[in-house]
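User: For my dataset I need records formatted as: sequence, then structure tokens, nothing else. Please produce one.
Assistant:
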Amino acid sequence: MGGPARRWRRWTLLIWLVASAALLLAYRQAIDGFMLSDTDDNLRMMQARALLGGQGWYDLRQYRLSPPAGFDVHWSRLVDLPLVAVMAPVSSFFGGVAAQKAAAAIAPLFALGASMFAMGAAARRLIAPAAFALGAALLLLAPFPLGMWRPTRVDHHGWQLFCLLLLLAGLADPRARRGGATVGAAVALSLTIGLEMLPFLGLGIAALVLPWLWDGRDRPALLGLAATLGAGTLIGFLLFASSANRAPVCDALSPVWLTMALAGSGLVALLAVRPIKRRWVRVVGAGTAALLLAGLYALAFPQCLQRLEGVSPELDRLWLSRVREAKPIWESDAKAIFGALSLPLIGLLGAAYGVWESRSDRVRLRTWGGLAAMLLAGLGLLNWQLRAISATQLLAVPGAALLVWRILPAIVSSRLFLVRTLGAAAALLLLTGLGSQLLVAHWPAKATKPNPRERAVALANGHCPTLGALRPVALQPRGLVWTFNDLGPRLISVTHHDAISGPYHRNGEAILDVMRGFRGTPETARAIAARRGVNYVLICPWMSESTLYAKEAPNGFYAQLAKGRAPGWLEPVRLPEGSPYRMWRVKKG
């Protein structure tokens, strides 16, 4: 082994630096315009700002939504640290605005770099020592994961993807104790950040346990897993769980999941501490441990046997079940489905080949087998929620890299020039998923008349959250603004105003107030405004959320405002000509 394979960390660092420079250049306008990608990014930035402003480490209430009490954000402080690490020094020299732009630009690239190193380690162990560069480079061709690492995407999803790759690197580690410890650390880190990856984490642990069930080997790996999973989850809870998450809540790392992690770690350690020679004894022991864990969960935490968010049926019906990422993939059009599933299907084929190729190598076999199981789980989850697409595409990268590594050399060694050139190009386009992306980009449009409604929605969604559009709103005296749930986090992040709500399940009553008010009569809306202490009502017609109110309540409060018929308890606020917004002040008295 020589050359770049020996210095793979330096080369991975170079790939990351080049990719980061390219992404910063590509998103320079979004960075300059502080166009954070979605509501979660805006709220994450507010969380980091509050920490720098003196809010307590364990106090994760967002006081500028649903003031004065605010609401508890279910995230942890861990992902705030990269943002704060950039903002603190930059703000000292260039001010808060520049610091926030710098953090929005740079912080997501930290997660990209960590992911590239984890992918490089996994590719070296699964494919070949020199395959690290291919694995790291192919991450840049997975559109949904890349979207989680691009500048202005400051939320936690990019770090969750890193945890998955770290888990894979641990599974593929030939040093049993270190590999098991890496898997445990990856699971603990992921749980500290959030619970979105639970199904994949469970399958990753199973990939480590099942070979032990078969032949009793890999005890050091299980002991390493138990040590870091238990200790890591405890440390994550003690250092990063908010005060609100010290209660037995189900939607974040709390006493619920800490108890399950500690109990699971203890049972794994108990099973692995001594050799168990008979397979049936190992199976019975593992089955008993699983039943004990399930019983503990059901008896100690019955509140968590339902949906973990714990939302009311009304909130689920009006809001949560309508969130785009919570819908199944088959509700998307053919273009979106093809673009989303092409890479996972390629990766699944590669993982299946990896299983066959690794029949005599137990470490690689368990990793490819676990990877195939996680890919199948991801494809299954997409029939429930589209939010699984980033993890599913990410898990496809190692399989795609294996196919490229095996097939491309055979093609380029052909004696025929056309095979070496056209064949190699075709193989790269097909196996990396790049060809499907190009096809999606040039997908023929439907032969239908242009839809003015769709154009209006796209224009409003793109224009309303911009700094330029919100600047006249920000110039009004500070107050509590009643606006769309999806606009609330953006409003508080770029203006001095507060908002009633944001699209977060712990903010459920505020979400319902906004939705009931916009759907109801002006009298209903007036009562909500009085109870909440609202100063302004702000709408941006044709934003996606507004179309639901207009369609489902054509005579409701929002629909009347959109038609220019404001009730007497509101007076118009003059905004510049061409503003996409309409704003009213609540009359006193």
